[in-house]
Amino acid sequence: MNWLKYVLGDEWEISPAGGATGDAYFAQFNDKRIFLKRNSSPFLAVLSAEGIVPKLIWTRRLENGDVITAQHWLSGRELKPEEMYGENVAGLLKKIHHSEELLDMLRRLGKKPILPENILAEILLKIDRDLVKVENISKALRFLEQEQDTVKYINKVVCHSDVNHNNWLLAENDELYLIDWDGAMIADPALDIGMLLYWYIKKEDWSSWISLYGLELTDHLLLRMKWYVVAQTILSIIWYKSKNKEKEVLYWIQYLDQLLR
User: At the topology level of CATH, where does 2-73 sit?
Assistant: First the structure.
């Protein structure tokens, strides 16, 4: 954390903020509280300007080329699973998916649209023979291969790609934010919508939630959502197997069976 002392000074109290990269920190000095991250994407500035993440305060480049960003550290909490039903969640996701500013920034950063064949190719590249032999997985792979052309959708948007409830921050003033944008991509909005509905919303309530978002639950949207959730589930299985997390591997293999019924 030497770079933090260099940027802030010795009077700040600094603590790790967790996360996959280990490059995020909380800092406090008297009543000032900020969230710091090293080498955040330039995408963060647009997310802040759009009100999707807590406000960006400053950006600084160190002599070694690292870029440090500071955001307001908000008092708040992550959403509970049952709160994913909320109109505020549907509204914020719609705002993200309809933002031309976010889409333009990702394009300028060199991001290309992710197509179904790209995702299937990634799965086939990463998966090992033992997993392919598992009945639920082989059945899922056949489904992905058979439907990859059917699920194509022209209107690509900025997708978060991990709409887990713990990435939604509800501030004390009831302002909602979606954080942790490291996996942002340009893709079919069904990639985000499907994960959210399958993980958090009862099927009988899908139509009403989709209407909050501003869409109609068509057969094609249902198929696209299913395709992306199946694909994401297989990728999760591959990841958990690489980490020797057998309990999680078994859980998601069983979940595939529910998806494909």
Answer: Phosphorylase Kinase; domain 1 (3.30.200)
